[in-house]
Amino acid sequence: MKNKAVMVVLLFIMLLSLVGCNGGTGKTTKSSTAIQGDTKTAVINENTKLKTAADLKNKRIGVLLGSIHDGYVTKTYPQAQLLQYKSSPDLILGVKSGKVDAAFYNRETLIEVFRNDNELAFLEERVYSTPIGIGFNKQNSGLREQFNAFLKQSKENGVYDDMVNRWINNGVTDMPVIDNPKTNGVLIVGMVSDKGLPFAIVKDNKLVGFDVELSERFAAYLGKELKPVDTEFGSLVTAVATKKIDMIASSMMITEERKQQIDFSDPYYELGASVFALKKNIAKYDEQPDTAAAIPLIKNLSARFHNNIIRENRYLLIFDGLKTTAVIALAAAIFGTLLGALVCFMRMSRTWLANTIARFYISIMRGIPVLVLLMIIFYVVFASVDISPILVAVLAFGMNFAAYVSEMFRMSIESIDKGQTEAGIAGGFTKTQTFFYIIMPQAIRRVLPVYKGELISLVKMTSIVGYIAVQDLTKASDIIRSRTFDAFFPLIMVAVLYFLVSWSLALVLDYMEARSNPKRNRNAGRVTND
């Protein structure tokens, strides 16, 4: 059975790879005459091709969630359909798959993207420019002043100009060696690892880029050890405002709205905002005959596997993400099961107070989305506490899991005839002994099928922990996609890994369910006696 399951998984991957093989070859299929959107289909011809950014007034426009482009598009294109993406790989995928007609993003990062992808191009290379700075908590003006002094010194001694030439002008991707005594504590810096070159990427499982080197040099200037915290872009302002991090170094544009929440350093670069789209949808790019030779499926899969998994030891990102996902899921399941048992006990209690608290807890946990609960615990409940994000994830998922588990336990217990309890007590058992020896074994057997489904749902829910700077399996996929620009392979790979984890858990619970079945045990005993 196991061998058959493995074969099914392999066939599943190959079939999906057949569907997505054109996505990684870097060629445009000429036969495509329409882009399938979320709500409409736009026929592509010479009259509907984009000429300037003004043509986007009634189009679908993609932006990065929490970016300055979000507000700009809302104000400039009120008739357009705005689609917000949580990461730059998702934004680029939205354009390549036709989910949006065009998107706004940083000019400097897009230049690097276009070096590796010949399907995309600028519709307008520079729509506007905005200074970027380092973000600080409003109560940490001392650290901001120290950074401004460091930045001024770097510009005077030529270090800053050298960084600009290497990272932005010449496209260098190697971090220099920076001497740092690391004797004055730790500097916690919020970054986005999939921001893209030249500012921040993961190379050989290490953060590199202009923002990373700038932070490394500032940490050395202070004599502190740099501790980068990789989080979602939309969570950075909240993280520094709640003192989860000391500063933001993620090429963040300085705006008046953001100034109300955090303080900014002196600008350290002028970032251009660009609009990009598929070449085939831009008028100035004439459609060329498709002369690219077809790449054999096996060779294509092999190349993509090497690019996404082997190159730069990216398999280590997947392995670390898988370990983190497994730890969070297992710990949350154990914690949630124990807490659920306690809540069940309170829910079935004859004490009014305990019963009311349990009812209220179950209603609250069921009514709040897990992502919102996760953010509240991390950024509100533990706002001023230095706590591991992984521990917060375990608490949040465990608390949510407990609400559902408690009701499963209660229903399974109440489904057992009360006469069995009375018979146990009449036979000389105490109420506690009756529960543990008579009621609980039957309740476990009845609850396992439902518990199994809820546990698998818990594993899949852990994919949102990237919002509190936890690098899980899904975040590892985002990092890989930001480097390879492969929209298909990393997502399918992560989907298969989640399936394997869920399938393994289901096998374990199926075994436990079979072991708890009295008919199976009686049959096994007969076979042994025979």
Label this structure with key terms.
single chain; 530 residues; alpha/beta; D-Maltodextrin-Binding Protein, domain 2; MetI-like fold; two-stranded antiparallel ribbon; 13 strands
Q: From the coordinates shown, what is the CATH architecture of the domain at 315-513?
A: Orthogonal Bundle
Largest sheet: 9 strands, mixed
Radius of gyration (Å): 28 Å
Categorize the overall geometry.
elongated
How far apart are the termini? Answer: 27 Å
CATH homologous superfamily label of the domain at 315-513: MetI-like
Percentage beta strand: 5-15%
Oligomer: single chain
* Unreliable parts: 5-11, 13-44
Class inferred from helices and paired strands:
alpha/beta
The number of distinct helices, counting runs of at least 4 residues, comes to 19
The CATH C-level name of the domain at 315-513 is Mainly Alpha
Write down the CATH topology of the domain at 315-513.
MetI-like fold
Give the overall pLDDT as a whole number. Answer: 84
Query: Helical proportion?
Result: 40-55%
Number of strands: 13
Task: Characterise this structure.
- Keywords: Amino-acid transport, Cell membrane, Membrane, Signal, Transmembrane, Transmembrane helix, Transport.
- One of its GO terms (molecular function) is transmembrane transporter activity.
- It is found in: Cell membrane.
- With 530 residues, the protein is of the alpha/beta class.
- Among the domains are: 140 residues, D-Maltodextrin-Binding Protein, domain 2 (3-Layer(aba) Sandwich); 199 residues, MetI-like fold, CATH 1.10.3720.10.
- Helix content is 55%, strand content 14%.
- It is built from 19 helices and 13 strands.
- Strands 3, 4, 5, 6, 7, 10, 11, 12 and 13 form a 9-stranded mixed β-sheet that branches. It has a two-stranded antiparallel sheet with strand order 1-2. Strands 8-9 form a two-stranded antiparallel sheet.
- A hairpin with a 4-residue loop joins β1 and β2.
- α13 crosses α14.
- The protein starts with a helix and ends with a helix.
- About 7% of the residues have low confidence.
